[in-house]
Prior knowledge:
InterPro entries: KilA_N. Residues 16-39 form the KilA-N domain. It comes from Streblomastix strix. This is KilA-N domain-containing protein. This protein is an all-beta fold. The protein is elongated, with a radius of gyration of 11 Å. Strand 3 and strand 4 form a beta hairpin. The protein has one domain (5-38). Strands 1-2-3-4 form a four-stranded antiparallel sheet, with no helix packed on it. It contains no helices and four strands. It has strands at 5-12, 15-22, 25-30, 35-38. Helix content is 0%, strand content 67%.
Amino acid sequence: MASTASTTQIVSNNETFTIGQYNGFEIVVREKDGFINAT
């Protein structure tokens, strides 16, 4: 099984987020405090 990863960085409401996808999971990281949300 091959692993694939991709990331996108966005700015919303003066906050920066990195959105990544890895093997079907979406991971959102809030840059200011490192909060991680994975779905």
